[in-house]
Structure prediction request, 516 residues.
Amino acid sequence: MRGKAVIAGVGHTAYGKHPGRDRMSLIVEACRNTLADAGIDKERVDGVLVKMANAEPSFLYGQKVAEALGLRPRVGASLDQGGAANIALISYAAMAIEAGLMEVALVCYGDTPRTGTRAVYQRPRGDDAVYGWYSTAAGYALVHQRYRLEYGVPDEAFGAVAVACRANGAKNPHAHLRKSITLDEYLESPFLVEPLRRDDCCLLSDGAAAVLVMSAARARQLGIAKAVPILGFGQGQESWDVQLRPSLTTTAAARSADTAFHMAGLQRKDIGVAQLYDCFSVTPLVTLEDYGFCKRGHAGAFAAAGGIALGGPLPINTSGGLLSETGTPGLQLVIEGVRQMRGDANLPVGGERHCIVSNQGGTMHTHSTLILGRAA
Amino acid sequence: MSYPAPDISNLSAPYWEGLKGGRLLYLRCRHCGHRWLPAREACPRCLTAEPSWEESKGRGKVVSWVVYHLAYHEAFKARLPYDVTLVELDEGPRLLTNVVDSQAGKRLALGSVVYLKIEHEGELALARFSLEHPAGAREP
Prediction:
């Protein structure tokens, strides 16, 4: 599949607060911007793939989105994998296009947890609620605690993730939170579910984003400027709930990355920039290890030494990630990867090398990986 | 003030009834010997649906824990800050619980040994744990 499909356009709404607007309106706006970015008429789109809304799962959701877009696609569906779904959908789009099921697909997501309901992120977690087990954050706090104690990772290492992402987001005119922080400010931010501090946790943002997927051949035929080749993709699923899985500090991201690197025919050293899912600060640290960029237990020291900051050996989340650009899960990282590979990112990095993007859902239940090449 | 209630099914009822009777139960596969919680009909290892309820000796080790500094439900406001701790029983199954004398996690470490201490919230019996060895308890 290496290079068979491209991302031909990207688009999004403003990120932050959209009081009074529903998620469908935001998705349509993001798709409109994506079609304009690609310079493609909507009538060419014959695939509509949408990530299920975290805040409000619903029946025939993919079809409702197609209806709002005024499309009767050949292929349409919604997918629930939590935050891993967007890259999964991009990979399914690439394969369905290669198989001849469709030609041009919109992959999109939007939600309104900021001004609408955020109940899903504060939910009781099954029968364990009788012990006070609530919220998405708590699952990551359990991982963060085990990771910091198992490997002796200092708080400053988690802080380095927050500081790096916030620094990049502060320079991003589209970011929801444009406020950099110092390590001291991180360390002084209050505990929510200890060991998670406020600044370990991603934003809750309203917004929507979309990307347009087509074959490389179709992109050439349509004269798409700066189509970004999809070189590899993969998935891996821990699946078991966090308290039941054998290890809290390793995830199926390793299998996901191996699949993607094998497809792409690339080595870790071929990656110049990474957009790593940063729902909580521990997540990119574990992902750096699962992906093979750092040895087990060493990602914290790598981050604390500036390894992931702009100008470091592997800059991450160059538009701010979930901690700063928008909490809207997943596509912002893909879009920033595309912009890096097109050369029109706000903070361009990585020289001639490639970009890896991770998406992840649940409490590290699901994982998906995308490797993008430089635009032709 | 309502305390959160578990969703007790035919499958899980023996677990909750066991706690009311002072016993922590887990499921054991009659076919392959695998032991698990929470209740499910088929063994997640061999998929045989021939489990039997067994009683845990009530000793386990701490795998990880968190400390809540905000309450997502009113029933926990008065408990702040409170721990939720992941314990692996000596028999193998894992469960989330509270360690009643952890001092909001300050006394916990990875691998801390904890002992079953059943507590009641109204009609509900909960499998909480303690760092103190209960007087008269037998070592496994």
